[in-house]
Amino acid sequence: MPGFTEAVSDEMGQIIESLKQQRRFLRYATFGLNDGQVRATPTASELYLAAIISHLTHVERFWCSIARSEAKPIDPTNIDRGFNPDEGLTLHVLLAAYESAAGKTDDALLAHKPDHQVPIPADVPWFPKNNDFWTLRWIALHMVEETARHAGHADIIRESIDGATWLPLLSAIEGIDFGPWIKPWEAKVQA
Predict the structure, then answer these.
(1) Topology given in CATH for the domain delimited by 11-174
(2) Alpha helices, H only, 10-69
(3) Which residues contact 31 (CB under 8 A, 6 or more apart)?
(4) CA distance linking residue 45 with residue 18, whole number of Å
(5) pTM score, whole prediction
């Protein structure tokens, strides 16, 4: 069925397929929107689509630095700064940066076996102090969780912008015919 992940034979590969699926759904929430619309805040929240994409780009870079056991991981405060992307960044630029960061994360997660241990940075105040390491499996699953949470936010924001929901968007983007049950999304004509 459309929207499901591809079945792969190895554990980390399957987790990464789930992560890719959530990344794809996040991108789909922006389909057919312009740069102004992805900066709109149509809900009670201050979140907007461009901010979510920027935030998740920072998240990918941060966790990639940890997965690679870099001596000095990326500053974790950059993750929250990601919620305020520069005004001049277009949707195209934001999505390209996100895709690049995601590819590097996937490479880092596949560089070793899922049980490979990486040290937990001691200087991040919200990280646990009762453990010295995470496994790449844990990081990958955390990335699925984080991305899925924000893809859900993106769905709500998108629906608030123009009423589009994920199945009609999926139908339009992937050319899937759901028969009479789901009509592909089409841009509303402005009068």
Answers:
(1) Four Helix Bundle (Hemerythrin (Met), subunit A) (1.20.120)
(2) 11-28, 49-67
(3) 164, 169, 172, 173, 185
(4) 27
(5) 0.92
